[in-house]
Amino acid sequence: MSHLNEHGITHLRHVDLAVPDYDVQRRFYTETWGLTEVGTDGRLSYLAAEGSPEQYVIRLRGGDDKRLDLIAFGADSPASVDALAARLGSQGVQLISDPAALQTAGGGYGFRFFDIDGRTIEISSDVETRQHRAVEEGEAIPVRISHAVMNSDDPNRTRDFYARVLGFKLSDTLWGEHMGEMMHFMRCNDWHHSLAIARGPHTSVHHVSFEMRGLDEYMRGTGRVVRAGIKKIWGPGRHNAGNNTFSYFLDPSGNTMEYTTELEKIETDQWHPSVYDIADPMTQDVWGTADPMSELIARDSFNDPDKGVFVAPPV
Question: Which of 125, 155, 186 is the last residue of a domain?
Fold first, then answer.
């Protein structure tokens, strides 16, 4: 299908976070959020989604600093990995590592680099898949990682980097009269977005989203997290751009995590990105069940300035 990524990037694999409150976070992601710990290595925890063939979708690392360690994307072949590394190098992008055998769970072949905001990005192919299963009716646990949204103080520059250098395509944009372009939804496959760039005061994680089996499971999961006393920022509701449901929560470290379901698939190259005005209540929540988006809600997902900018993670 010609609308797939021109450089062979296939999908979002995992998001790796460093957290000072490692034990608290491990409990949150396993007991409350519904991920499965599939391995540990010292103060590293590998967390899988039961319905996903990925080895893990979140990696937690206990550390002094809260930071994004990296975002990992899959590639279709070692040749694509090599070609992309050469392309990035020729465009002046700072490589952290050259393509090589990976030492992480599932092995594979990949490399790391800094994106234009200083996030560590990994591209890999040939990672072994994990034994996974169909999530059953009524089972309110994540099926897979859906997308990652990152804050940038120059979201148009970041959008252009991912489009020009990595071949991501723009799906839609959110716009506000006072702030201009607020969020760009970017795709590397037929999901409406695997990555989005939000306007924020600094580089940081905006949110990480997890796909649930369906509406019932999404609502059951939302209720479970609410009952666990976790702060709900926004939702439940349904966005216009992407047509997906949303319930946003703050994890114990202050990173925003989302349950979603029914994210739109784009199955044509003839897609024309729309610009949605955030002042229109239908833009934010077509159901009208969530509180209107406000500065207070937005500020919760600005997060702390990321201490990992242009600093490669130790592992």
Answer: 125
With CA atoms as reference, report the closest residue to 36 among 124, 128, 133, 108: 133
Same domain, 38 and 92: yes
Q: Which tens digit of pLDDT belongs to each residue from 54-65?
A: 999 999 999 999
Range of the domain at 169: 144-300
Residue 306 has pLDDT above 80, yes or no: yes
* Tokens describing residue 243: 């047509």
Residue 280 sits in a domain whose CATH number is 3.10.180.10
The band of 191, judged by pLDDT with boundaries at 50, 70 and 90, is: very high
Place of tokens 């599939």: 38
- Taking residues 192-202, report their average pLDDT: 97
The answer to whether residues 263 and 272 touch, using CB atoms and an 8 Å cutoff, is no
Look at the chain and report how many structural domains it folds into: 2
Spatial separation of the C-alpha atoms in residues 114 and 305, rounded to whole Å:
17
Same domain for 90 and 157, yes or no, is no
